[in-house]
Design a protein that fits this description.
It comes from Didymosphaeria variabile. 37% of the residues lie in helices and 12% in strands. It is α/β, with parallel strands linked by helices.
């Protein structure tokens, strides 16, 4: 009896072994999955990214034609907008030492905007640009790049400036720890941006400009042509951030402005933005200004007799060197007095950063639809030190929905 049970167990084990061998041999005949290849191997089918399904097998002729050439049939078309371009350029004041900071700025501008429009870029320097700066920036910009040297007479002390007096002022500002108070180059820069950049021979080819500084960032996609928007809506100056200027840097600027307006009253237009920069009809200046490290504007306005007379008057007053007048209040006061209110535009939709301030568009729906990466809590617009809320009030504009949450 025990022997019969042993034989039965052997028979059961043998049957199990036969069944396992059958399944193993069957599984080895199942074809392996067909994965897309990306390194020039045309022997397998490629995946269609729009459906996530395998594409139809290639014919013999197709295989032969792509044997040594990458198959680009499924790639997206260039992200370039159609239509005519405006006569416009980006403009940057930089030196060779700024190469990697400006490279970061270019990358932001190109990724968020210019890859669609391919506008030119003008680089200006008080010295000569080196080979590496030119090579790197040219590679990053989708439009043409141009490199210009600033004439010495535009980046030096004018003959009418008492340099001993100017040096004494710088020393006093250094003791008071006023930002850039002891810097000579910063003063040359402010004077140049105030009155000369738009007169450089390279800039004379253009009608519109977008100023870009090293180490700035854009946080949202810009799907439309900002230059065309400015032209079609009859805008001449624009901003993303506004704030109050350091009082210590411009103690006599408003006196110089009032002297200008008394000599050239014809340059002050009706319907201007005086109420934005003064709370007593022009008797005093409240120090509000547009932060000029971002500007999109009209070059013909800056080249006008009105603006040239304005800058020349301020220049002879000496405040660029005897004090520390910045180009931001100089541009802002000019725009407030010489342009109609409706000719100045606030770009809420251009998310912008320049240390230490951020403009993050107010409105969650816009931020989500335009792939914005800024934190709305960092938005400076409705901060007490910002002048943007005042700009809305003076112009009778309704503040963007949700601004209360950012105050």
């Amino acid at each position: 009896m025990a022997g019969q049970q042993r034989y039965l167990r052997y028979i059961v084990f043998a049957l199990i072994a036969i069944i396992l061998l059958f399944f193993i041999s069957s599984s080895s005949s199942v074809p392996s999955a067909q994965w897309p290849t990306y390194k020039g191997d045309q022997s397998q089918t490629a995946a269609d990214p729009s459906t996530n399904k395998p594409a139809a097998p290639q014919t013999g002729a197709e295989k032969e034609s792509t044997a040594t050439t990458p198959n680009t049939g499924n790639q997206l078309p260039p992200a370039t907008a159609g239509g005519e371009r405006m006569n416009a350029t980006f403009v940057t004041l930089a030196r060779d030492s700024d190469i990697w900071e400006i490279a970061e700025s270019i990358r932001h501008i190109e990724d968020r905007f210019n890859r669609k429009f391919n506008y030119d870029w003008v680089f200006l320097n008080d010295g000569d640009f080196g080979e590496e700066f030119i090579k790197v920036t040219t590679a990053l910009v989708s439009g043409k790049t141009k490199y210009g040297k600033i004439p010495k007479e535009h980046w030096s002390f004018p003959d009418f400036i008492d340099q001993d007096r100017a040096a004494k002022v710088r020393e006093e500002m250094k003791e008071k720890k006023i930002i850039y108070g002891d810097s000579v180059s910063y003063r040359h820069m402010c004077r140049y941006e105030s009155g000369f950049f738009f007169r450089h021979p390279l800039m004379l080819d253009y009608e519109w400009y977008w100023r870009v500084e090293p180490s700035v960032k854009l946080f949202c996609d810009i799907e439309y042509d900002t230059f065309k928007f400015m032209a079609e809506n009859k805008k001449k100056y624009s901003f993303t951030l506004s704030l109050y200027e350091y009082v210590e840097t411009i103690p006599t600027l408003w006196d110089a402005v009032k002297n200008f307006t008394s000599v050239y009253p014809q340059h002050v237009v009706e319907g201007n933005s005086m109420k934005w920069i003064s709370e007593d009809d022009g008797k005093t200046y409240n120090h509000c200004h547009f932060w000029s490290n971002f500007e999109i504007g009209n070059l013909n306005w800056l080249r006008s007799d009105a603006y040239i007379d304005y800058f020349t008057s301020l220049d002879y007053a000496g405040g660029f060197f005897y004090e520390r007048w910045g180009d931001a209040p100089v541009h802002s006061i000019a725009a407030a007095l010489m342009l109609k209110k409706e000719e100045i535009h606030f770009f809420n939709d251009i998310a912008y950063y320049h240390v230490p301030f951020t403009h993050c568009p107010t409105g969650e729906e816009y931020r989500l639809s335009h792939k914005c990466s800024c934190n709305p809590k960092d938005n400076f617009d409705w901060n007490g030190y910002s002048c943007t809320a005042r700009f809305f009030e003076v112009n009778g504009m309704e503040k963007p929905a949700g601004y209360e949450k950012e105050q």
